[in-house]
Amino acid sequence: MHHWLIPVWQPLLQGVRERRLGHALLIKGMAGLGKRELAGKLATALLCQHTNNAPCGMCHACELTAAGSHSDLHVVGREGRSIGIDAIRELGRIMSESARLGHGKVAIIERAELMTEAAANALLKTLEEPAGQATLILVSSQPERLLPTLTSRCQQWLVPLPDTHSALSWLNEQGVTATPAALSVNQGSPLQTLEYLQAGADDKRLTLLGELVSLGEAPAGLPQVQARLLEQPVHLVWVQLLLQDALQTALAVNAPLKLDDCREQSVRLARLGPIALHELGSELLELRRRLQPGQGRPMNAGLQLGQWLRRLQQALTHS
């Protein structure tokens, strides 16, 4: 188990052994912290036949859970873009039945924020009338998207971000060279940062941001920069963080930069001045909002980004 999960796991395990956990729990926190792993460990402990020493790892229930074949453990939400009402109704039916191994039933709803409103309301009925020893575990990286009536019926367990030093130490132990900047662009998530570094995305970020700031001297590179920014939504996040650092530099704020490995680019952008940087940042934020899933991708997304880049290019040329 990842070390940053232990402070949450220990009281959860104690609650299992003392039989004082509620029938509905919400495990929440940033993406890339291992919440799914934590929910799986909790399910194993709840289904263990030796509650006082759960999870024992030796009983029949623990062996079945480890093999992924425990008949009283059910997981939904692992695939697909949404969790519909049919899946939740079927889960409610399953949870209302008696446990086949006689030691309770556990259901895990991963990415719970993807439930449709109808599915969430169906789940609410299940929570209002819990069946026997049934335990429901919701896992979410965006708990604010869940119905308040749903979250209010759950014991909530927050998985906090590890501190920068321990996260970087863990990443280095995984055989990657990690920097505070790489951690920042992944919102402090060690697992996301590991995937990001292994994919070589950090070099891509440095190259892309360098080309962006060079648009004032190399205007012919605009179409290429525009195409790269549209490849993935996270590329615009990189630009947003750089603009924030530039604004901080322009205002002479004495605080660490988010992208400390792009200090030269931040200083270059800072010459645009606080007002121009604020306007560019606000415009980019609105563009990112329009490109979010569920907002409907505008047909002229490329055109809008191109216009924004030309404004940036013009500002850089005259700075």
From TrEMBL:
<dbReference type="InterPro" id="IPR027417">
    <property type="entry name" value="P-loop_NTPase"/>
</dbReference>
<keyword id="KW-0808">Transferase</keyword>
<protein>
    <recommendedName>
        <fullName>DNA polymerase III subunit delta'</fullName>
        <ecNumber>2.7.7.7</ecNumber>
    </recommendedName>
</protein>
<dbReference type="Pfam" id="PF09115">
    <property type="entry name" value="DNApol3-delta_C"/>
</dbReference>
<dbReference type="GO" id="GO:0009360">
    <property type="term" value="C:DNA polymerase III complex"/>
</dbReference>
<keyword id="KW-0239">DNA-directed DNA polymerase</keyword>
<dbReference type="Pfam" id="PF13177">
    <property type="entry name" value="DNA_pol3_delta2"/>
</dbReference>
<keyword id="KW-0235">DNA replication</keyword>
<dbReference type="InterPro" id="IPR004622">
    <property type="entry name" value="DNA_pol_HolB"/>
</dbReference>
<dbReference type="GO" id="GO:0006261">
    <property type="term" value="P:DNA-templated DNA replication"/>
</dbReference>
<dbReference type="GO" id="GO:0008408">
    <property type="term" value="F:3'-5' exonuclease activity"/>
</dbReference>
<dbReference type="GO" id="GO:0003887">
    <property type="term" value="F:DNA-directed DNA polymerase activity"/>
</dbReference>
<dbReference type="InterPro" id="IPR015199">
    <property type="entry name" value="DNA_pol_III_delta_C"/>
</dbReference>
<dbReference type="InterPro" id="IPR050238">
    <property type="entry name" value="DNA_Rep/Repair_Clamp_Loader"/>
</dbReference>
<dbReference type="GO" id="GO:0003677">
    <property type="term" value="F:DNA binding"/>
</dbReference>
<feature type="domain" description="DNA polymerase III delta subunit C-terminal">
    <location>
        <begin position="202"/>
        <end position="313"/>
    </location>
</feature>
<keyword id="KW-0548">Nucleotidyltransferase</keyword>
